Every structure is written in structure tokens, then in C-alpha cells.
UniProtKB/TrEMBL annotation:
Residues 191-205, 213-238 have a biased composition (Polar residues). Residues 1-25 form the signal peptide. The chain crosses the membrane at residues 245-268. Residues 162-238 are annotated as: Disordered. This is Uncharacterized protein. Residues 162-174 have a biased composition (Low complexity). Keywords: Membrane, Signal, Transmembrane, Transmembrane helix.
Amino acid sequence: MFWFRLRLLALVASRFLLAIDATSAANPNPVMQTTLSGLLRRGDLEHVVLADCTRSGKNYIQYSQLAYFAGPPTDTPDSITNATKDADKHLAWAGSGKITIVSSDGTPFSVTIPTVVAEGQFAGNGTNGYGDFSCYARFKKALYKTKDGAVCDGVYDCDHTTPPSTFSSTSPSPSTTPPPSETTAALSPTLTQTQTAPLASTTAIRNDRNDTETSSAQPTGSTATANDPPSTAPSPSSGMTLGEILGISISSGIAALAGIVAVLAWLFPKAPNASSPLTRTYRYSRPPPNQHIG
């Protein structure tokens, strides 16, 4: 009987411990959700560059890419995604309405460049659903080189700086397609990481000049206008507050302690006291022979 009660006590204790573990698993710390890859916001110093790439020589080809940098742009982007669906064509970044490019991990980046602006000027807004970007016309010739030998020029640089309230348009920026001789002379070191070849499996969505979609709908970020600063909506997060988690944990602990005390009281009942009324012995005398009861 004792061993049966002991096993029952162990079963009750394990049930309470499982309940506490389930509470912790259902409310993970939101900070742990910042380790995702791709275009998710990693820090205030990150940049997204809208680039035009050209491969010269016998296999001449043109295409556009979206390059992500964890810090200031260098000749080695952290990740790249093709932005054009058609071969031998640069994407018209300015004047095409909202353009959405889906990265390899499924994160959409939407950018709107209303018109061509002067070098260094604010050009438009971008967003990936996790943070807003301000895009500037910052032409960087031969910013990086792809694995297949194409040279990519940075056309627009998007970061987390606060944009001005207005901007003025001007003449087009320098051509993003250098002559073959200049392209050959400006080759940058080959990227060390594995990158997707041009025309690989990518998903790109863009609007025509009349702002009509040309492909199936994909998740996009908010649409920003040229004269309005981007919204400062906080990044989405989930999970309960620290106070709620602590309250649930304390309540579960108290309930578990109460259950264990109750089971212990049942396992080891208090020995009855000799002076208790339950242990008293009552003696009854037999009536005399001639006396009748009742």
C-alpha cells in the first residue's frame, strides 16, 4: 500500500511540472525571435541596396538585384536576390510604382521610388514588414561582383535614417550600364559565399506605370508616398509580458506545492491520540436478573 501511494505522489508531481513547462513554451521570450535570416531587421546599421548588374563578354546579360548588408555596403553583400524576371533587362527602379521583391527566405521587401532624383538625395521609401527604410540615390560603380562574373552597380541605398519631408526631382542619375571596356577594368574581387546564379528560381513582383499588378499577389509591406515620411509602426512581436509569465509561474508553483502537501498528508496520516474520544472504552454493567429493560 505504501509503494502504491508513493507512485501516486510521483505521478501528481510530474503532472504539475509538465504544466509549468507548457506555460513557458507557450510564451517564449520575443527577443529570441530576432535570429531569423534574410531581410528581417538585424540592427540600425543594416542597408538594402538596389543594384543593376551587367555581365560583359560573349555571354553579355543585364539584370537587377536586391543586396542586403548587415552594415555599410561593401564588395561582399550578406545576401542577394534577383529582382528581374526577364533576362537581359535592368529593372526601372524609379517611376514604376511599388516594387516588391521576395527574398530566398520568403521575406518581401517593398520599395517605392516615385521619380529620378539628384545624386545623394532622398528618393523613396522601403519596408519589409519588420522596419521602415529610407532610400537615397547613391550610385556606386562596381559595388560588388556576382559568382557568375557580373558586375553590380549600386543605384539606390536604403537604410534606417530619418528621411526629409519633401524632395525634388531632377535629371536622371548616371547610366548604370558601363561600357564593356569599363566593366572589364572595374571587376571587383569574387564573392566568397555561395550566391544564386542570375535567372535562378526567384520571385519578383512589380507594378506597371499604371500601377496594375502583373503577377500573382504576394505579401507586401506598407505603401509610402514621396511627400510623406514612412510610418514608425513598431516591429510586430508576440508573447506575454514578464509580469504575466511570472504570475503564471508563481500560481503554478503554489498549486503544485498545495497538491504535494495534500498527498503527503494522505500518505502519512497522523496517528490517533490515546486521549481522543474515538479510543475511549465504554463499559456497560449487566442489569439485575429480575430487572427488565424497556
